[in-house]
Fold each of these.
Amino acid sequence: MSLVEIKDLKVHYPIRSGFWNRVTDSVKAVDGISFNIEAGETYGLVGESGSGKSTTGKSVVGLEKVTSSSIMYKGKDITKKANRKSLDYNHDVQMIFQDSLSSLNPRKRIEDIIAEPLRNFENLSKDEEKLRVLQLLDIVGLDADALYKYPHQFSGGQRQRIGVARAVATNPKLIIADEPVSALDLSVQAQVLNFMKKIQREFGISYLFISHDLGVVRHMCNNIAIMNRGRLVEIGTRDDIYNHPLHIYTKRLLAAIPETNVNDRAKHRANRLAVEEVYREQQDKYYDDEGKAYPLVQISPTHSVALPEDVAKELILKEGEVQA
Ligand SMILES: Nc1ncnc2c1ncn2[C@@H]1O[C@H](COP(=O)(O)OP(=O)(O)O)[C@@H](O)[C@H]1O
Ligand SMILES: [Mg+2]
């Protein structure tokens, strides 16, 4: 059994208009997506801004009212509040946000910020609590003098470490990391990713790792889902996605990974333009008449793509020739 199973998740926001302020339409932020997160793994959810990633993340933590879905944890559906309560779900599943400056209360000291989940979920004495907060600071590589400081006194990378310390405080099973390094410089990104991996190994935590950049998740994720316009357009292992992408949208995201090697920039740019050209010419093939992505079809035990079956088969044949 997977740690968490998300089945046909839909989150539609009503749009009201007119004199009576009636619901006239809806934004289909998430429109029928399914995936499983295994214990101890990092699952990547990747797509451009606006594709519905944060809404998905918030639904999995239980912060979003879902239109329909079942999200199974330990055999129970946690979209029902009573089940979240009886399973201690809010203790087991925590969240890290992209923007640590607005997600950490600026008026609270680091000691109180990290202790907050402990105070909510665990009955510790003052001394036990302080010891635990010091341990957590140590785990994320910060000194004890951080205890009495405020969030603005730290750099972006250090604040992300504080966000991680708070998220792991209760020893959760799953952490939803929503663009955890997107606001950081490249060199700092690598540091934060490395200690997130270290913490995962030590505590056996699973991550749902959300990003708009396929370059960032490459070394983090065993399995990846590509999200586009509220739907999943491709699911696969790291090898499937990076070495055998099939959907044009996945190929665009791959072509958009920033090239750090100056010598390869011209080639990289040429490739990106070529992919954009294919996208313009062949879009129709990849989306239905309403512009929606097709249902996923499975093309190997690990790899699925959102295409009509005949188109998928044709593509696989063509890709095979290219690779041969
Ligand atoms: N509370 C809301 N009310 C209406 N529309 C929303 C709300 N939250 C998000 N959306 C819309 O849902 C879509 C997906 O948003 P989001 O999940 O934040 O995407 P991402 O995290 O991939 O950038 C966007 O079009 C966004 O404008
Ligand atoms: Mg987002």
Note: The chain has a mean pLDDT of 91.
Amino acid sequence: MDKPRIFVLGIDGGSWNLIDRFISNGSLPNFKKLKEKGAWGNLISSLPPVTYPAWKCYSTGKNPAKFGVFAWVGIDFGKNRMEVYDSRDFKSKEIWDYLGEAGYSCGVINMPSTFPPKKINGFMVGDILSHMNMVFTYPPGLKKELIRSGYKIRPDYEFTLGFFEKALPEFKKTIKSQFDLALKKMPSTDFMHLTIFHTDQAQHFLWNFMDDEKSPYKGYLEEVWKEMDLNLGRLLKKLPKDTYLIIMSDHGFCMQKNVFYINKWLENEGYLVSKKDPVSLLSRLGINKERILIAVNALGAKGIIKSILPKKILEFYRRVPTKQNNIGVMGATASINWEKSKVISVGEGPIYINKNVVRTKKEYNQIRSELIKKLEGIKSPLTNGKAIKKVYKKEDIYSGEFYEKAPDLLALWEEGCEIRGYITQQKSCWAYDNQWKAHHKREGIFAFYGGG
Ligand SMILES: [Zn+2]
């Protein structure tokens, strides 16, 4: 039997609504072929439908309370701080661990939640948190080969203001280099997993331009997807006859209509108390995240700079406010009054009751009931529609050994609404957008192809 036997192509943010649009205008002949000759359908993502925990739900086959990470960011109420996760925080075996034990060789490339990489029977290349000057491969020696062959962890330029033209070829190069590696390693691997992450990033920043006749960036997102299609074509050509190809995303995508700053709402409703982080005063001096990003992007080396920043400086950077004086949730620790806040969210849906303040079961239950009622009924003044589709209690969606760590409530947004965890000086908890022009929806993609 030729190798690999299974190839899983993960497309971060892959969504049929977008793919079908580009298939119908002839831009994606290989995706068209895949749909015509394979089986396909909607994939229903995890709760919340976000990269962390979605990819790990796939690779472990478990709900997040069985591996201990519920979103990009969590809360440590023992230390009163926001926690940012990496691969070491996920506590569970994955499909490649089981396959490895059974003697199959596995290759895992760029799946979110794989940095630092771990030992498997085969090789692992770390995700977007990796940096070229760190050990981001298992075995460590593989890194040299990757550098030699031009592997790119990320584009040198992002789709931030003023750098769109430079970012597009960089995105394409990154995608191609990751396919190159997977294709090269295919003959020695039984089970291959490759995630392309930058489709998600491109969609967040470019979606709105697709229908803007006047925009010079109108065709950019289509260009990114044409690159995906080109590489899918290379893969289909090289795939051995008896190999199964599985294509899946972690969640789908749709146009964003509004942003709900949930921590601001909690503050306005009296559940959360914020305080002034001295770092937030930087905005008065004209120093904000956007300006720093533009300066760093101008050097064309965001990843390199990030990789040489000591952790302390990175933590400091996270506390720097945006232009609108918003503090991102990763840097929100110093902006929250932990002694007085009863409820805190990390954005994207998870909501935590602070049991250091809410001490009785009665109050806990009362707050949860109130929040469910209020949030499910809330209307966005910007769209006049519902913002929150449903609020789940933890006991309804989580079970497992990390259950205690799970958020007490999980709010699932209505399509088109993004829930942000900002701590903000603005009075309103609503905004039309906030850099991102499109956001996740729960229906992603799944396709099955081949097998002789
Ligand atoms: Zn995303």
Note: Residues 13, 51, 200, 204, 440 surround zinc ion (CB under 6 Å).
